[in-house]
Amino acid sequence: MYVSPIREPLVTGAKSYKQVTDDITKPMEGKPGKLWYAGLATALLALAFGGYAIFVTVWDGIGSWGLNRTIGWGWGITNFVWWVGIGHAGTFISAILLLFRQKWRTSINRSAEAMTIFAVMCAGLFPLLHMGRLPLGFFVFPYPNTRDLWVNFNSPLLWDVFAISTYFTVSLLFWYMGLIPDIGSIRDRLKDGIKKKIYAALSFGWTGSARHWARHESMSLILAGLAAPLVLSVHSIVSMDFATSVIPGWHTTIFPPYFVAGAVFSGFAMVLTLMIITRKALHLENYITVGHVESMNKVIIATGSIVGIAYLTELFMAWYSGVVYERYAFVNRAFGPYWWAYWIMMTCNVITPQLFWFKKIRRSLVATFIISIFVNIGMWFERFVIIVTSLHRDFLPSSWSMYSPTWVEVGVYIGTFGLFFTMFFLFIRFFPVVAIAEVKSVLKSSGEKFIKKGAQHEK
Amino acid sequence: MKNNKFITGMFFDDKDLIEAIEKIQEKGVFIFDVRTPFPVHGLDDILKYKRSRLPRLGFVAGVLGAICAFLFQAWVFTEAWPINFGGKPLLSVPSFIPVTFEMAVLFAAISLVFGFLIKSGIGPGAETIIFDERTTDDAFLVVIKEDENIEVKRAEEVLREVGAEDIKLVIPMLKKS
Q1: pTM
Q2: Closest in B36, B113, B124 to A177, CB measured
Q3: Which is nearest to A440 in space by CA: A19, A29, A5?
Q4: Full strand arrangement of the beta sheet holding B33-35
Q5: A153 and B105: CB-CB below 8 Å?
Q6: What string of DSSP letters covers A262-295?
Q7: What is the ipTM of this complex?
Q8: Does the distance separating the beta carbons of A206 and B122 come in below 8 Å?
């Protein structure tokens, strides 16, 4: 296959098929390093603290959170929306970029999808805890009960239940089906023993038969086709939790596309933050190259600009609508008691990502790492601003109030970080971080060795 | 699967593999299976595999999911537990769309995955024949099965002629047989 020599190779270092397997499975062999143990220990500590905060929430009740009659949604829902958003990058990379035939996705899709699954698990915790009593979580599912009562299908909160649980299930299936050929690779590298038996069971008896591959490809494509509208629907539905209400600042028709863009924006930032460290720690620089980082930065700048336009549109519509409450909500956001949150959001989401217009910054790992953290922070504040500043001054000035979280809410948030990173550390230890088979399938069209061959041939 | 004899020949490049398969087919030898470390494009056409019916299965399951979800919601709000929301119609179709869509996706995805696993005969604890452990690494394996049309010696000869390496006779021993 002819490939333009100008095109940057996706796999550098002139790798052969065998080297691809060796390089990617290497971090899983032998004993893990000190850094891995330190990381896992920190994550477990955070998880334990979160576990204690959850215990307090359940034991003492939701009163242990800083919420009040005016501000009924605080950190809990902020964190829920934030984590769901983080997950969107994985599905975007594995489904939408698959449909668009973007070959650079093959090196990052596996880990990004894993992040999706872990992030959705973290997200799901918050609405459940927000109910105060965990058994109430049972009532969101429509099942025939003795009270003859059904759930309210008119409520966006219920749509959320369906959207998030479908999203989690489909992501998990999609991810695992992509994983079985690679687990097969690991199985076949191991000598007999308990480890081989475990991987053999996990690989579902994968053989690499051409028949299976043909079916696997056809299934993956359809799953991607399903996951693409699914991922758009999930954050659209999350946005409807707000948009279908009558609260000024929430009651906006642009919410669904604005939330989806924001979700992909924050998700890519999280993927970048983690992959820049992971590629270094696991020595995968030849697979996750600066070119990959640049491509992702381009997605960040596109989605970040959409988010920026959405902010400005909101401001314009608040003025243009002529609704006094709507106008007040936005003036209050920017200049009210929570002005600092609004301006952190504006700076981190609208201004700093614009630095990626410069190629030097786009291709700098240090700059990308710093800006990606800015985006993570900015997108957290976006949800905080939308939720808290819209609620804290409602229609009745006598009920105006302020909100700040208690240590319990902060603890639950830290706990979800613990959960996310515990899973992530276990994942990079026991599963291949890069999709081995998929990288091999693009090696000939995008590997450095083969591109150079093509270039010579052209002369 | 008792006493089946398989003759395997190995290649280390997908281009060589495809050329060899074409040559083997010209000789009128049936290729039982091909094992590759990654999906090789065009292989299913050369081996004349029928197009997978999985997309159709996914479509049917998706439609079924949508119908079930919609009818269930309609039944809940008109028959089982009608609630009057400010005089709005009981059968409020637009608000049923999100759940209907999600259920369509869920049904389709689950049926696709299970369809794939069942049709391929793989799954947790599945016992499959792995002819050579290098096929999940960098080796491409052509498998010919001994039957009344072709005997072991002839198969080995054919594989040698097309340039296969490491030609072996494999008689798999399965626990359940």
Answers
A1: 0.92
A2: B113
A3: A19
A4: B33-35, B140-145, B6-11, B165-170
A5: no
A6: HHHHHHHHHHHHHHHHHHHHTT-TTTS-HHHHHH
A7: 0.90
A8: yes
